Structures are given as C-alpha cells and as structure tokens.
Fold this sequence. Notes:
- By secondary structure, this protein is α+β, with helices and mostly antiparallel strands.
- Among the domains are: 114-191 and 240-332 and 342-417, Catalase core domain (Catalase HpII,  Chain A, domain 1), CATH 2.40.180.10; 577-739, Class I glutamine amidotransferase (GATase) domain (Rossmann fold).
- 26% of the residues lie in helices and 15% in strands.
- The chain contains 19 helices and 20 strands.
- The strands form 4 sheets. Strands 1, 2, 3, 4, 5, 6, 7, 8, 11 and 12 form a 10-stranded antiparallel sheet that branches.
- β15 and β16 form a beta hairpin.
- The radius of gyration is 30 Å and the shape is globular.
- CIS-heme D hydroxychlorin gamma-spirolactone 17R, 18S (HDE) is lined by residues 108-111, 114, 147, 149, 166, 168, 181-183, 188, 193, 196, 256, 339, 373-374, 390, 393-394, 397-398, 401.
- CIS-heme D hydroxychlorin gamma-spirolactone 17R, 18S binds at residues 108-111, 114, 147, 149, 166, 168, 181-183, 188, 193, 196, 256, 339, 373-374, 390, 393-394, 397-398, 401.
Amino acid sequence: MPAEDDVVIPGVPSSEPPAFEEPTSPREPLPPKPDQRGPEAVSPTGSPTGAPATARAQSGQYLTTAQGLRLQDTDHSLKAGARGPILLQDHHLREKITHFDHERIPERVVHARGAGAHGVFRSYGTASKVTRAGFLAADVETPVFVRFSTVLGSRGSADAVRDTRGFSTKFYTDEGTYDLVGNNIPVFFIQDGMKFPDVVHAAKPHPDREIPQAQSAHDTFWDFVSLHTEAQAHTLWNMSDRGIPRSYRTMEGFGVHTFRLVNAAGDTTLVKFHWKPKQGVHSLVWEEAQIINGMDPDFHRRDLADAIEAGAYPEWELGIQTFPDTEDQMFQGIDLLDPTKFVPEELAPVQPIGLMTLNANPTNYFAETEQVAFHPGHLVPGIDVTNDPLLQVRLFSYLDTQISRLGGPNFAQIPINRPHAPVNDMLRDGMHQAAVHGGAAPYRPNSLDGGCPFLAGQDMGAFVDVPQAVAESIKERRNPASFDDHYSQARLFFRSLSSVEQDHVIQAYTFELGKCYESAVRERQLQALANIDAALCAAVAAGLGMPAPEATEQVPDRDPSPSVSQVGGTWPVAGRVVGIVADASSDLAEVEAARKALDGEGMVPLVIAPAGGTLSSDGLSVTVQRTFLTARSTEFDALMVAGGKQPAADASAGRDAKAGEPADGLDPRVALMLSEAYRHAKAVGAWGSGSAVLEAAGIPKGAAGVVGGNDAASVTTELSGLIAGHRAWDRFPAAGAAAE
Length: 740
Ligand code: HDE
C-alpha cells in the first residue's frame, strides 16, 4: 500500500502502483445489516418477533445509503439554488426514489390477501406407524409459519367476504421443509387442474370494469359453476357459514387431496389431512360480515395478531383419516383421487397426530407473510403425493408462480423460505442470488470438489419416490367414470346441516343469485339446486321470485355427516371479546368486577362509553377502550350493559319501547349496537338498571341468550356459558331472516 502521506493526485503518477487484489477466492458474505437480519433470533421459526431490539429497529445507528454512506440530509433534494431545478447528480435522491418505485411485487394470482403467524408443531408420535417423517415421530417439536388467506380478493381487499380461505403451513423440519397447503373447505371446485384458470377467471372481477372485488355474487361465477356442475359441492360449502369464518382461529383446515404416507418398512397408507381448531369452528352471519367489511376490513388479520399478542395462542390439532392403499384407491364408494369429494368423519374418524400453536406475530409483513412461498411439492421422506389430477397440476404451478412473483429462482434464500435443514444444492446464479458459493464443481459426478456433495440413501434420510405401478395405459384426455357424480356430496353436506345453518345456505344462494343479472344463469343454477335438494331449490326460487324446476338427475342419497355442522358444541372462551356499555352514572365497582371476571377467563373486556378517556366516580376510575362513535356490535362476541347506581326503575324512565324498536332517549348508537348483537344471535346481558337499557333497545326480556341479574358476577358467569356455545342458536328461527 502507498504510505499514508503518499497522496495520489489525478494525472500525476504515484511513486508505487496501487496494490490490487483480485477477489477470486470465495469468502463468507458479511453478516446482514441489522435491518436486514433474517428471522433468526427469537420466534420459533427464528423471527426476532417481539424482541425489543426489533421494536426499535436500527436504534442508535446513523442513517446511511444502501452502500453504507452516512447521510447528513434526507429531506431536501440537491438543487441549483433553493428555488432551482433538481440536479441529476443527486445520488441519494435517485437511490431513494428508485428503490421506492420498485417496492411492490406482483400480488399472488389467487390468495393475494393473507395474514401470517409463527408457531410450533409438536407431534404426538401417533403417526409413526404409518409414516417415517421425522417431524411426526413422538414428541418432536418443529417450527412452523402459517399463512391464512382469502382466495378471490386483491391484496388490499376486505377480510370478511364470502369465499374459501387458504390455510398453508410451512414446517421447517430437520429433513427439509414440508408445506401443507390447504383450505378451510375439504372439497374443491374442479377435478382437473387444467380447469383452474377457468374457475379463477370466472370468479375474479369482470374484466371490463374490474368489479365486484372479492365477491362470488356476480354473473360470471354463477355462469361457470352452473355449467361446470362438478363445482356444485364446493359452491355449497361456500354458501354455508364456512364461507364467512368468524376468525382464522375458528377455521378447520383440510389438505383436500389424498396423500400417500410411507413408513420405515416401506408400507404405504392413503390419508387426508385435517386441522381441528381448539377454539371450535365458528362463523359470522352474513349481515355481520357485510358490516365488518365496512367497519374493519382487516377484521381477521387484526383478530389473529391481537390474540397472539394477548397471549391467547390459537391452537389446532392435526389429524389424519387413513385409508388402505388399494389398487382402485376407493373408500366406501368414494373415489379418493376425486378432490370434489370428502370422506365423512363418520366413515373414517380423524385421528390426532400433533398440535400446532401459533405464538408469534411476524415482524415485517412484506418480508415474511408476503414473501413466504408455499408449494405442495415441498415434501419430506415419509409423505408423498397421489395421482389426484388437481394435485398433480399444483405440483407444477406453485414453483412456477414464485418465479414471476418473487423475481427469479432463488426465492428459497429469502429468510422466511430458508429451510432449517442444511442446504447443499448445486443450483447456481440466477436473479437475486444472495449466496457466495464456494467450490469449483457444481455438477455431478465431479472429482474437483472431492465428489461432493454426496447422494444419500434412504437410510441417510433421502427422499425416495414411492415405487408405484403405472398400469399399461393409453394416452387420453378424460376422467374416470367415478368422477361423474357431481351432486351426491352437495346433497349430503346440505342435509347434514342444522336447520339454522340450512336457512343460512338458502339466504346465501338467494343473495348471490339475486345479484346476477342474467336470468339464464339464475335458472341454470336453480336447476343444479333441484338436483341437490328440492326444498333448497324451492326456497331459493321463492326468494328470487322464479319457478322451481324439477330435478333432472337421479342422485344417490348418502348418509348425513353430522360432524360438518357447527351447531351444538361448547368451546373455550379465551380470546373472545366482550363489550361493557357504561357511562358516568354506572356503578364502576361492578364494571371493574365484570372486567376482572372476564379477564380471569382469558376473555377481552372492552369498556364502551360516550367519550374516551376514563369514567370516574366515588374515587374509582375505569379506562374507556371504545366510544359510542368507534364501537360497533361486530367487534364483540357478547355485550353487557352496566347497571347504574340508581335503582332499575329510575334508569328506565322515558325509555319504554315496543319490542324490536329502540325507545326515545337511548343513544341511537347504543340501541343499534345492542339490537344488532341481538339480531346476530350473540349473548347480551345486563345487571341492575342496565336491563332497562336492553328493553329500551327492543330486546325482549327472557329471550334466548339474554341474561339479566343483580350483579356483574352472576351475569358474567351466565354470559360466559353462552359464549362457549358461540351463539344463542335458538334465537335464529325468529331473528334468522333478519340476520341474513
Ligand atoms: Fe392453489 N395456488 N392452486 N390451491 N393455493 C396458489 O401459489 C393452484 C388449490 C392454495 O398462502 C398460487 O404461491 C392451481 C387447492 C393456498 O401463499 C398458485 C390449482 C388448494 C394458496 C396456485 C390450485 C389450494 C394457494 C398463487 C389447481 C387447497 C395460498 C400464489 C390445480 C388444497 C398460499 C402461490 C399462500 C396459492 C395454483 C388449487 C390452496 C397460482 C393451479 C385445491 C392456500 O400457484
């Protein structure tokens, strides 16, 4: 190197030529900058989620350019004088704007709107008889990242739309990453992946005006599903309450396809995967969903993040239905390769194999939830695919789509996609290559890198494709005859629902078809309904003011599957949200007692008052979380009205109402909140003089799910029992029509 005082002046040769080292030898890349650090520190998958260091990102650091140059000013561009034009030489301005110009990447072609969470999966070991997958052996803990999504809407669309939901799980196992990319509905619209662009084009907004957003209630969707009748079963699930989940936390998940497990001895078993939420399966009612989409389009995203932040970690048990791997791959008359069919649990019980707990929110939406790349072909030893023609096309599509979405073939190097197993591939170069690969011989066989990396045998954890006999066959484009039954499972599903749920299905079809302009489309869909169930068809036809057609097909009756109904169970109440309506005249000691009791059960009590701040009296003060302006019934699973300090009779003065109508004098926003909660069959309660407010809001005393009492404690206990049942279902026959 030149001596320190040996300054090099342009144009003047220096005394010694500058030393120049060509960087030929590969070296480890520098550790990432603090703000680029991959998910490594805290969360189960490695994300530094919640760590104080990331909460104050880059704390104590100087602002720099992307090249590490410290900056003195990032607010003013470099100009020829304060009022002059901006100079092209402003490298910082150009870097800042150029990077900004390229901040967006293409959204997913489907499932664009989603929410993610980190967690952990602990296996029970019950599956080890049927699979050699290491992460399913007894008591193994595997980090996971889950992404829930809607299918149709764009990235900024509302959460509570009527749609199927995606339920994708990435297991970072020691043997490589395994992705279970499922939905909240066990059947699919199409049998052959070749039809996927058709169903998606039909369901997406109309190509001319690009409306409606995130909706199936339009002509092209119903045109397609009424013509392509194999879509009828999935459509019926979408029209049921499953199409509008209460929360991502209260959804079941399904792998949909049949997969093939292989055990250590090489024996194979066909399986279907199920996620069972510990929180129970719970849905919205349609009017509630529509209000939510205006009041809080991020409802599901917020709910998931809030629950995790509050420590109410959502949990799902993973289970499998197992079937013998017979030559015909049929089970009790159901073709296991037909993804428009599910196997009722009554015929093949779901056997639990592990528990997933989501316990950390992402640190950065884009880095994790947006850039995560799932693929049904990310398999581990012990889990293999079948010939389901929908699954086979998916095996092509997911890898392909990431290349345009994530800008090249190196997306596995993005922190959220990095396997936790050692990676020694021979993939090189390409857009966004972040690794500095050593070695001279990324090919096999080689001698220059000592023959490395080696191939593993099955005993060393290699994935070995299950040797499957492929029958001598002719090349042709057609389905097996067993795929021809398009209606029996739609009928089975409808007839397995409770009458309240059936009523919701009828209302959903009537709403959606009522939004179609083409009468030919409505007529054709009514024809499909006639083949599914005559009563369903008649009720929808009546709602549309159209004649109900006769069935045109002989559809076999199957035994109903009561397990598909959401009505009847009780579930943990932790994480449920209860609003307490109070004002300055309320007995604050009782409000505090209600809050404590709800909190004690893991629920989230929120005090709703005329204005923000605190409610104070008699030396007591209670923090207000919602005001009459910011609160709406849809945020709450139940509502309580606090009693006042004065006797009940005084509080009701001037507030008499006819049933179903709010009385004069009651704040209309409170009246709306209470009557909506009542109409949506939510538990409502009041203690002391609060009962008069319920009556003033038109809520009949003693109706199902309406609780009264003298003190907060007794009302809270009763309310909690009702919340465990999710809704006051008995209220629906009276209020159901209004609720839809
Ligand atoms: Fe997907 N699907 N899909 N799909 N799918 C995608 O992959 C596709 C299907 C599902 O949170 C895309 O990375 C084809 C069934 C989920 O990132 C794309 C076919 C099931 C997600 C794609 C299907 C799913 C996707 C778009 C018919 C339930 C979101 C972005 C053969 C078992 C994953 C992406 C996430 C996403 C293709 C059918 C579930 C284009 C061709 C059946 C949960 O590759």
